[in-house]
C-alpha cells in the first residue's frame, strides 16, 4: 500500500467568495480578443468609433504614442480587418486617416461588453 | 506586482473609465455644429426683406398671380414677396454647401471627421421635394405619368401658408445633424427650433406682440409677418452663439 492510499479521497473545494472564478467555457475572459484588449488598440478603436474617421496626428496625441508605436498598433488592427487606413494629402502635407470597419465596431462592442461583465462579476466578490 | 495587477476589478474599471473619458474627449473635440446654427440664423435674418408684406396691387383690383415655388415661398404677393421662394432655394443650397465645406475644413483642422452626409442629404432632398412636388402634382396626364397626381399627399398643408416652410426643412436637418454629432444639446436645440418653426408656420406671432402692446398701424402693417421670421432666427443665433462659446475651448488638439 502506498502512502497515497492512506489519504482520504480529494473532495472538490467549494469556491469561497475570495476565490477568483476559474476561467471556464462560459467565463467572460474567453470573450476577450487579444487584438482589441491591448489598451492602445482599444483606444484607437474607441476614437475611430466616435468619429467618421480620425487623423494619424490626432490619434498619436490623444493616446500619447510615438509615430512608430502607433503605426505598429494600426498595422495589427488593419491586418485583423478592424480599421482601414487611407493616405492622402491636405495641400502638400501628407495625411493619414483611420476609419473603423464594421468588424472593428463589433469587436469593440464585444470587448466593452466583456469588460463590463468581468467588472460585474468581480465587484460583488470584492465587496463580500 | 502593481495594484492594477492585484486588483482585476480595479483594472477593468480603470480601463472602462479611460475609454469612456477618451470617447467623451473625442466627441467634444469633434463637435462643430455651432456653424450651421449661426449660418442658418443669419440666412433667416437676411430673408427679412422678403417677408415685408407687399401693398395692394396697382389699380387696386388686379389679380394676384399664382405663387412661384409655393412650398418654399408661401402665398407670394399676399403673405410674402414673390421672390421669397427663390431666395430660400438659393439660401438652403448655399447654406448646405458652406456647411459641407465647414465640416471638411474642421475635420482637417481637428483631425476628426463628423459624418455630416446624412444631414446634407436630408436637407437637400427635402428642398428638392419642396421644389418639384407642386408642379409635378399638377400634371394631369392619362398616361403612365398619371401616378404623379398622388404626389399631392406630400403637400405639407397649412405649413406653407406663411412662407416659413424652409424653417421646417432646417429643423428636419437639425435632427439628423444631432444624431450625427451624437449631441444631447443639439437634440434639445433641434426640439426647441422645431417647436418654433411649427409655431411660426401655423400661428401669427404678431398676436402675442399685440397683447404685449405692439399695435402696428399704417406702414407698420407691412411688418406684421416679421415676428414669425425673427423668432426662429433668434433661436438659431442664440443657440449657435452658445454652442460656439462651449465648443471654442475644445477646438485645440488634445
Quick description:
By secondary structure, chain A is of the alpha+beta class. Chain A has helices spanning 3-6, 34-37, 39-50, 56-63, 67-79, 102-127, and strands at residues 53-55, 83-90, 93-100. Chain B has 11 helices and 1 strand; from the N terminus they run H-H-H-H-H-H-E-H-H-H-H-H.
What does this entry look like structurally?
- The complex is a heterodimer of chains A (128) and B (254).
- With 128 residues, chain A is of the alpha+beta class.
- Chain A has one domain (32-127): Winged helix-like DNA-binding domain superfamily/Winged helix DNA-binding domain (Arc Repressor Mutant, subunit A, Orthogonal Bundle), CATH 1.10.10.10.
- Chain A is built from six helices and three strands.
- Chain A has a three-stranded antiparallel beta sheet with strand order 1-3-2.
- The radius of gyration of chain A is 22 Å and the shape is elongated.
- The model of chain A is unreliable at 1-18 (pLDDT under 50).
- Chain B has 254 residues and is mainly alpha-helical.
- Chain B has helices at 3-6, 8-30, 34-46, 48-51, 70-73, 84-110, 117-137, 165-181, 184-202, 206-211, 226-247, and one strand spanning 112-113.
- In chain B, helix 6 (84-110) packs antiparallel against helix 7 (117-137), helix 8 (165-181) packs antiparallel against helix 9 and helix 9 packs antiparallel against helix 11.
- The longest helix of chain B is centred in the middle third of the chain and has 27 residues, at 84-110.
- Chain B is globular.
- The model of chain B has no long low-confidence stretch (mean pLDDT 85).
- Chain A binds chain B through residues 20, 39, 42-43, 46-47, 49-55, 57-59, 61-62, 90, 95, 97, 112, 115-116, 118-119, 122-123, 125-126, and chain B through 7-9, 12-13, 15-16, 18-19, 22-23, 25-27, 29-30, 107-108, 110-115, 182, 253-254.
